Amino acid sequence: MTENQIGKIVVDVAFAIHKEIGPGLLESVYEAILAHELEARGLKVQRQVPISIRYHNFQFDEGFRIDLLVDEKVILELKSVESMNRVFAKQVLTYLRLSNRRLGYVINFGMSLMKNGIERVVNGLNE
């Protein structure tokens, strides 16, 4: 399955979850539910995946954590806040670059309209 195919499933599932339970829950709740729903659709989902950082000849494992990694290809950064912030997409782009992946999403379940809470982030992926 390609990144774009996975991304379509992710977006569809995120919309369905938001429609059913709405905004206002903790990020960790959305993470658990989204992981469960994606796995129910046959996707492999890893939660809280560490990303190490290489600096000169050193590797630091104290780097970042990906909220959800889907099929080893798509990074999901989940939020549950009232508004989107530009730094969220920059964060995902950093994760993509550090992990050599091409597609990620910021999914903010805190928005009243889900369409305003999803941002696609690419790193060299053909549209």
Number of domains: 1
Rg for CA atoms: 14 Å
Dominant shape: globular
Order of helices and strands: HHEEEHEE
Strands of the biggest beta sheet: in what spatial order? 1-2-3-4-5
Helix count, DSSP H or I runs of 4 or more residues: 3
Highest-level CATH class: Alpha Beta
Total beta strand runs: 5
Give the uncertain stretches in residue-range form. Answer: none
SSE class: alpha+beta
Percent range of helical residues: 25-40%
- What gap, in angstroms, lies between the N and C termini? 15 Å
Q: Provide the CATH architecture.
A: 3-Layer(aba) Sandwich
CATH-assigned fold name: Trna Endonuclease, Chain: A, domain 1
Overall description:
The chain is α+β, with helices and mostly antiparallel strands and 127 residues long. It has one domain (3-122): 3-Layer(aba) Sandwich (Trna Endonuclease, Chain: A, domain 1), CATH 3.40.1350. The chain contains 3 helices and 5 strands. It has a 5-stranded mixed sheet. Strand 2 and strand 3 (74-79) form a beta hairpin. It is globular. The protein starts with a helix and ends in a 5-residue tail after the last strand. The relative contact order is 0.19. The model has no long low-confidence stretch (mean pLDDT 94).
Core attributes:
Trna Endonuclease, Chain: A, domain 1; alpha+beta; single chain; 127 residues; globular; 3 helices; five-stranded mixed sheet
SSE layout and pairings?
Blueprint: H1 3-21, H2 27-40, E1 45-55, E2 58-70, E3 74-79, H3 86-99, E4 103-108, E5 118-122
Parallel strand pairs: 3-4
Antiparallel strand pairs: 1-2, 2-3, 4-5
Helix pairs in contact: 1-2
